[in-house]
Design a protein that fits this description.
Elements lengths: L5 H15 L3 H16 L23 H36 L18 H6 L3 H22 L7 H16 L6 H31 L13 H18 L7 H12 L2 H8 L2 H12 L1
């Protein structure tokens, strides 16, 4: 980024922070969270007809369940909607910045033209994924404890949550994909042409022996530049159009799966756990 594009970049930051700090969006989110609680009284998604502290066997909501539905869930929904709003602002910020004339280099070592650091930013959403996983794990745990559900029958929602959580957190980075795709396409043509020209000259000079007799290959910079050009072209071919790496995906997956571990341990018989542990050790 040069001095000409810096004001545009600062303007995007200022606009995003201004929207982040506004009160009106949060008031709307709070009203929406409370409004939903007034009309949705079901507190357990994976349970039907079971009596617990939320609801009675007759189907009526208990006093604790009413507080949970009107107050606790409203706060949870507000925080969830607030994070969705923040994620929308982050996506909008990335989209606006990607439209600035950025100085992106296809041969950057991060394999994302210099935008690989954005993958690290997505790790900041790990605690949110973990919190959502706790909610899903609690729903599954209640269904097992109060309704006698089998863990095998509840694998689908647990797996679905992990997949959806990762996809949702990858989506913001997709807005820069068109820019990276264009950079990669252009670089493949340009670097491919340069590599072809250099290789042809190298072949004529050293393979077909069209060089001065006194010149030797040992220590000659031609061989080094041949390797450098080949390495640069390989980096361009391996360039990612979505700036996310495997460690970030693993971090998000672990954040989503970790809350499920106590439920799995609770629902799995001890003898099966012992056999599984011995099998892994063996």
């Amino acid at each position: 980024m040069d001095e000409k594009t810096l004001p545009s970049f600062e303007a995007v930051i200022e606009r995003t922070m201004r929207w982040r700090d506004r009160i009106l969006p949060e008031v709307i989110l709070a009203v929406a969270a409370i409004f939903v609680s007034l009309f949705i009284v079901k507190t357990e998604l994976l349970m039907t007809g079971a009596s617990n502290w939320h609801s009675l066997r007759s189907g009526e909501v208990s006093a604790a369940g009413s507080w949970f539905s009107l107050v606790s869930i409203s706060i949870f929904r507000f925080l969830l909607l607030r994070w969705i709003w923040r994620m929308f602002l982050w996506t909008s910020f990335l989209w606006s910045v990607s439209r600035i004339n950025l100085f992106l280099v296809a041969t950057h070592a991060d394999l994302a033209a210099g935008l690989g650091f954005l993958s690290e930013g997505q790790k900041a959403f790990g605690p949110i994924v973990f919190a959502g996983g706790c909610v899903v794990a609690a729903e599954v745990g209640n269904a097992i404890a109060y309704q006698g559900a089998a863990l095998s029958s509840l694998k689908a929602p647990m797996i679905a949550y992990g997949v959806i959580a990762i996809i949702v957190l990858v989506v913001p980075l997709l807005v820069v994909a068109p820019v990276l795709l264009e950079i990669r396409r252009k670089a493949l043509i340009e670097y491919g042409a340069q590599v072809t020209i250099h290789n042809q000259l190298f072949d004529q000079k050293w393979i077909q022996n069209k060089r001065p007799a006194s010149e030797t290959l040992l220590g000659n910079p031609d061989a080094s530049s041949l390797a450098d050009f080949g390495t640069s072209f390989t980096v361009v071919r391996q360039m990612r159009v979505v700036p996310i790496d495997r460690p970030t995906l693993v971090t998000l997956a672990v954040s989503a799966a970790l809350p499920m571990l106590p439920v799995v341990l609770y629902a799995t018989p001890a003898d099966e756990l012992i056999r599984a542990t011995l099998k892994m050790l063996g």
